[in-house]
Amino acid sequence: MNGWTASDIPDQSGRTAVVTGANSGIGYVTARELARRGARVVLACRDATRGKAAEERLRAQAPGADVVFAPLDLADLSSVRAFAAELPGDRLDLLVNNAGVMALPQRKTVDGFEMQFGTNHLGHFALTGLLLPRLHEAGHGARVVTVSSGLHYLGTVDPRDLNMEHRYRRWTAYGRSKSANLLFTHELARRLTAAGSPVVAAAAHPGYAATNLQTAGPRMEERAWAERLAELSNRFAAQSPEHGALPSLYAATAPGVRQDDFYGPRFALWRGRPTLSPRAGWTRDDTASAGLWQASERLTGVAYSWPSA
To answer: Of 92, 269, 276, 293, which residue has the fewest beta carbons closer than 10 angstroms?
Structure first.
């Protein structure tokens, strides 16, 4: 794992990948590098204009790449269902649950969920459940990689107030949504193992990578000073999206990745080559992960199907 870079990605020819939020940042880099290694990549993006522009940009940077844009709004469960139903082809080897929002002012999804929990966790929970039969069929080598954050340490999920209706705090809401990503991965890994499925569920985080996540919240509230501060921090303190994408790419492609592994930058959860990352103990709590799973099935209406063990 020492010194692992994108050039170490194994050949992905014949494999199909879905990357959510692939129009910019680490999602775009993840999609591009998978395509460069021969994968067919579906760019699952909310904004059609940006998604199609990303497809054109990727084709220019990786001539001959097999990529296609498909609309997906994780904050709208009807969009998630439509994406899964209309995804072309039968084969799916890799799902990278990358898209997310961070530290937004209080908002709700189309279905009435707190925006960060609804987008970062529930949307991906539903998407994974709807696509899991295809991953089962792909067999050995199929993976689900969910992108969390080192900031999951800001808080765990409160089962009594999943949508933070009691007292909304933007950074706590973000931390809870990222803890939800890890609890989801933990429970998915347990259930895949129990079912005898060859699909591997792992997670990753980019450290501090320069993306538009940091500026979206301040821009929504027209806090120019905060947006400018985020831009300066991105410029002088963050690592590039190319480096931020490495943990996701490692989790998605490297040999030896195990159920419930969590990868991130090696230096202080911040920057550097990918390695196994520390995580809060609550993200491995079986009772909490099972409770979140049951709540997620109820809220999304998506029940997972499993192969016979």
So the answer is: 276
User: Which class for 241: exposed (0-12), middle (13-18), buried (19 or more C-beta within 10 A)?
Assistant: buried
Cα–Cα distance for residue pair 265/268, rounded to 1 Å:
8
Bridge partners (DSSP) of residue 114 are: 108
Which is it for strands 262-267 and 271-276: parallel, antiparallel or unpaired?
antiparallel
DSSP state of 239: B
**Could you say which DSSP state residue 282 is in?**
G
**Any bridge partners for residue 98, and if so which?**
none
pLDDT of 209 over the 60 cut: no
Catalytic residue among 28, 174, 250, 263: 174
263 is catalytic: no
- CA-CA distance, 40 to 34, in Å (whole number)? 8
- Transcribe 13-33 into DSSP letters: TT-EEEEETTTSHHHHHHHHH
- Sheet of 66-71: strand order equals 66-71, 40-45, 16-20, 94-97, 143-147, 200-204, 262-267, 271-276
Give the integer Cα–Cα distance in Å for 248 and 213: 17
**Cα–Cα distance list, 49 to 45, 55, 96 (Å):** 9, 10, 21
- For residue 106, the 8-state DSSP code is S
Paired tokens of 85: 């139903």
- The pLDDT, as a whole number, for residue 207 is 86
Tens digit of each residue's pLDDT (9 = 90 or more) over 33-50: 999 999 999 999 999 999
For residue 37, give the nearest of 60, 12, 58, 16 by alpha carbon.
12
Tell me: pLDDT of 218 over 50: no
Q: How many helices (H) and strands (E) does the chain have?
A: 11, 8
Confidence of residue 270 (pLDDT cuts 50, 70, 90): low
- Any idea which of 3-7, 99-103, 113-117, 207-211 has the lowest mean pLDDT? 207-211
Average pLDDT over residues 112-121: 98
pLDDT of residue 55: 97
